[in-house]
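re: ur question from earlier - yeah i can do the single chain one, its not a big deal. heres the input i used so u can compare w yours
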Amino acid sequence: MVRPDPSHPDQINYGWLIRLRWSMVVGQLATIVGVRFLLGLPLPLSPLLAIVAIEAVSNVGAAMLGRRWAARQAWMAAAMAFDVLMCTGLLFFTGGPSNPFSFLYLVQIALAATTLRGLWTWSLTGLALGCSAVLFRWHRPLPAPGSHELYMDLHLRGMWVAFGVAASFIVYFLLRVRRALGLRDAELAASRRLAARQERLASLATLAAGAAHELSTPLGTIAVVMTELQRRAAALGADAEAMEDLRLVREQVDRCRSILERMSTDAGEMVGEGLVAAPLGTLIAGALADLSPAVPVRQDIAAGDAAGLVRVPPRAFAQALRGILKNAQEASPPGGAVALSVRVGAGSLSLEVRDHGPGIPSAILERIGEPFFTTKSPGKGMGLGVFLTRTTVERLGGNVRITSSPAGTTAVIVLPAVVRERAGVVS
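and the output i got, formated as tokens:
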């Protein structure tokens, strides 16, 4: 048989049905004890308690079955049909149709209509109608408590109690099932969004690898030509300024080739990168390595936290943090600085990046993170920084929150990482 899936609707419904059946067992016991000892009616305790015990044993078996294998609609239908038969047995010994609790059959029908397919629901409805009809012919009458007026008064009060019990069971069960299914739908929607981002990320990785491959040849040609130009310029006695310009162009070409080589490598490694234990300070230093020194990044991290070990994918961690820091640098005014605050909590790692730029309008803030959406001038960016950061962080089980005001923008990255001391156990 298939192993249970806690997020499957049938598994959710089955779990709540087990809980409801335990509530029914407790409620039946309380009713039997109350009627026997508080109202003083001589009920046949032996058969009634035996039926309740059978219900309890059956629910233990149903619970064990649900923990080992995936729930099926047939199991729920069988459990509800069994409860209808047990309810019929209880009513047989307590007055049959004259028992005010006789319409508790409606509880099972309502639950079936909510959780089962149409065929099972109609079958259970037919069984309840049949059992109810049998009670009109065969049942043991309740002993009369005295006058007819007293009997009717007790009967009406019992009907009110039975109505309250039935309504409470139905409302409680339906609300809890609806809430559980709502949480499941939210999780599925989040999973779909994450899967869509992963697909776009994989497409971008393929595009990056292709671009790196296609551009490597012309950049190699430019590098060879620049080497020849430098040699000729030196032979012709070019001035120092011209030689410096040629050297700078050659350095930038080499830098472009290095970036493309890293893009080609990272495109295939980022998605499947594993967890590595490394000092938190070293990981943050790696994220800061390629940033421009024009706008400094001021770090606020405790010495103990910086020396602690954290298990994260290093490339993905660096990419996520670097993308946010780079945007903060570009948004900061001349002479400004970016603040990076790192906090280690219970099972989580929080990185807060704050700039002192003009802020982001609310209409634009809502679209931050969409691929290829950017407010930068042409050639300054492709609108992928926040998208890649958010995708990477969510793939690691974390989240990114961005808030903005006229005093600046704050981005908070939260990752489910546990930091331990160097000499301790790495989690």
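The CA atoms of residues 249 and 259 lie 15 Å apart. not sure if urs matches, ping me
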